[in-house]
Amino acid sequence: MVSPLSLSFFTFFLFLFLSHHQAQAQSDPQSPTNDPPTVCIIGSGISGSSVAHFLRLYSSSSSSNSNPFSIHIFERNGVVGGRMAMVNVSGQTFEAGASILHPKNYYAVNYTQLLGLKNKDPPSDSFSLGIWDGQKFVFKTHSFSSNIPFVDKIVSLANPLLMFVRYGFSILKMQTFVEGTVNNFLKYYERFESRPVFETVDEMLKWAGLYNLTTRTLQEELIDVGLSPLLIKELVTIQQNYFFGT
């Protein structure tokens, strides 16, 4: 599955590169003006389809030329979407693509609106968490349903308290780390006028403060953040046959 982060990096990098190239071509009096450039995209999965969509959308809205370049997509299968498809296994139908979207993945959220898809929000009282070490549950939250709102409120407050007792202030540090990383990523959603033109992916990552995350392991990063070894082992890195359930 292509991650939203990789998809956005690829989409923005390709578009900014083409925009920069187009601006240079227009400023060069010797460059040909009759033949628009051709963009070839290999594969019509979520990445290829998104690149084609946003290239056409942004180029049409930012250029007086309604057709600044042509787009050719090469796909070996008869349908678009790649691994984001419905598959049938032993008579059962499964969704092979991404089924859970982060609310700040704005492109994916906008796609659901563009395609007329409906979001299915899980019930707020159905959340439960269990950590399995291969032999037993080392930690479980309480799951209890009652017709009395006061009882449900107590249970909803008890689960965060249990997690705090086990992991301490590392829970808050993890939340701060995640929010900071997401906010850095959201810089790519800013208007093009407020962003420089990136020549390389490294430049784009450094501009948003995400470069260090690509040069080291997650465990190394979280140790520097100050998370406890227990939290890193059980709740983040998902190593040594640990299992999460909701």
TrEMBL record:
Residues 1-25 form the signal peptide. Pfam families: NAD_binding_8, Prenylcys_lyase. Keywords: FAD, Flavoprotein, Glycoprotein, Oxidoreductase, Signal. Its cofactor is FAD. One of its GO terms (molecular function) is prenylcysteine oxidase activity. GO terms for biological process: prenylated protein catabolic process; prenylcysteine catabolic process. Gene3D superfamilies: FAD/NAD(P)-binding domain (3.50.50.60). InterPro entries: FAD/NAD-bd_sf, Prenylcys_lyase, Prenylcysteine_Oxase1. It comes from the Eukaryota. Residues 151-237 form the Prenylcysteine lyase domain. The keyword Glycoprotein applies. Belongs to the prenylcysteine oxidase family. This is Prenylcysteine lyase domain-containing protein.
